[in-house]
Amino acid sequence: MKLSVSGRTTAVGAVAALTLLAGGSIADAAPAPESAVAAAPDIPVAAVKAHLTQLQSIATANGGNRAHGRTGYKASLDYVKAKLDAAGFTTTTQQFTSSSRTGYNLIADWPGGDTNQVVMTGSHLDSVTAGPGINDNGSGSAAILETALTVARTAYHPTKHLRFAWWGAEELGMVGSRYYVSNLSTANRAKISGYLNFDMIGSPNPGYFVYDDDPAIEKTFKDYFTGLGIATEPETEGDGRSDHAPFKNAGIPVGGLFSGADYIKTAAQATKWGGTAGQAFDRCYHRSCDTTSNINDTALDRHGDALANAVWQLSS
After folding, report:
1. Quick check: is 235 catalytic?
2. pTM for the whole thing?
3. What is the SS3 string spanning 291-311?
4. Can you tell me whether residue 102 is helix, strand or coil?
5. Element spanning 140, H or E
6. Catalytic one of 34, 146, 170, 237
7. Distance in angstroms (rounded) separating the CA atoms of residues 239 and 7
């Protein structure tokens, strides 16, 4: 997650239940029968952690980080791309320049589905230069990678078109995602029914925060956690600091999940979610200790399954 903070006032209104019909957009869909919505398979946390182990090894072999313009970033992108290519995705590497260094976005499209209605899921793949970035944001990157591979493994045939993205240079100000959005034609922007963002979902002292942007996307996530008996809170720490911002600014419906960064967990939050009050959600945020030991397996598992559930629900 990008370091600088922009504040906002959060307002959560009551929203009507919105379930997608095959022909509707995420924001404006009419209710559909529950039986029409495909159930998402479980996303094995062990598989997500295996990807994190690979990202850690890449960082260790490349100066301790996976930052923009460094060899560790390109090796991370190559790892993800190889997995997706082998699974049958159509991948595109988008190149840009920032701070006199070459950066890359990776876009992966699953063949099929209505390409006039695209459900897009993304996370930033770069770390800061200080460390390997396993929670920030290996966690989101690994979870959407395993979700994409599960789409292929189960031969899922969604009504809408599925697109996954791994962004470069987020830590420099969402450079990669800004580049992607700014280079979309007006027609192609209109085809994106919704963008789902996952930036830090395995924090060691975790919270369960849901972006309160598009009401239908927000409800999809909140309903999932309600089914687990987990209360959520509106996400405020990361607004304007991650890759959903360029999509939101372009008028595209956005949503996502977040487990917390350097804000301090309150006593009320510790009562609700467990963990330690008075400590940051992630004490290793943007530090060299953001390694594979900096992950809460339960939070990673729950957020990964919530991610997959949203992809299936919103694309059915």
Report:
1. no
2. 0.90
3. CHHHCCHHHHHHHHHHHHHHH
4. strand
5. helix 140-153
6. 170
7. 8
